[in-house]
Amino acid sequence: MIEITAKLIRSHVFLSGEVVECIISFSHPISPSHKVSQSHTDMFESLAWASAQIHCLCFTDSKMRRAKEGERQASHVALADTALGTISGDNARVEFATKPKILFCDLRLSPGQMKHFVYREKVPVDSPPSYRGQLVKYSYKITVGTQRVNHPVKLMRVPFRVLPLAEAILHEAGALCNETTEELTPTNPFLEIRQKEKPIDLALESLQNITARRNPNFYMISNMWGKVARFCLFKPAYKLGEDIIGTFDFTVATVQCMQVSVSLQCEEETTIEDSSKQIRIITFSKHHEVCLGYKYTQLILPIPLHVTPAFETDLVSLKWRLHFEFVTSTHKGLSPPNFEETYWQAPSEVPIETMVWSLPIRLYSTTPGHVAQGMSVHKLVIR
Known about the structure:
It is built from 4 helices and 21 strands. It is mainly beta. Strand 18 and strand 19 (about 315-330) form a beta hairpin.
């Protein structure tokens, strides 16, 4: 019996363009049968070979899958099959697969012996992120395959998550790389030699620069009866795990606002030309407040860590927005009461109107270490 254990070295969350590192261990545990007298050869366990590669699976409905396959056939694009083929249903296909890397050939382990191998592979920058939507799903796995002589191939899959890097971040990272290029000057032996920054470090630096910029934008919200409120959003770009903070100013209003609701929503839309456009709206966190008689109030809306930032592929595009719902009324009995009086009778019936408004926002990735909650360990037993 041989046990195979796979453990991601740093975490199970990576950025596009980052190198995935995984320790794959092969061990031959000691069992009571080894205490029985037997030949030296019988005590060894052997494997013919083992290899690993990364698969990105795409899950769609049958209509989108047929349309995409038609485009691939028209452009004569095909993915090469390997010995580590993934098992997929009718609504799944391999989006891309890296070339398999051989870990070893003809491995022999004695009882109690263990061998470790490190698998490293870079996730392409232009690859889609991990995403579980209603129309499309993208899933990443490290597929480890091994085989005994004259036995079927055994597979173990280690899932991990990939966060996207927007074009704006890559562009700014390129600008930072150009700025850090040193000019041709005489070398000084007394100066400390600076190490060249990695592209991922520059991308994280540009990500921090983009999401940290405060640029307050003010919006006057009104309907056919007049002004409802003045809304301030302190910045337009956010990253996963942040709080969206804004303020409402009702002192400028000419129409009473009874309550306000703000939802964080993503808009998922297909991008295939041959199929009819499909759009799905998914709501995450929500802020609700009864604001009748308020002069000011604030909005605090957390961004979950498990959501996927904005991206676009040849199948789907994902955008983010704030969706507002204002409940207003022009009833004269809703005028603010005089606080010198000890009694105020609210009207028994109030005619209301509901107005909606959506404000696009930019949502980016964050440091993978902030998203990961633990190490991913998987085990396979070969008998």
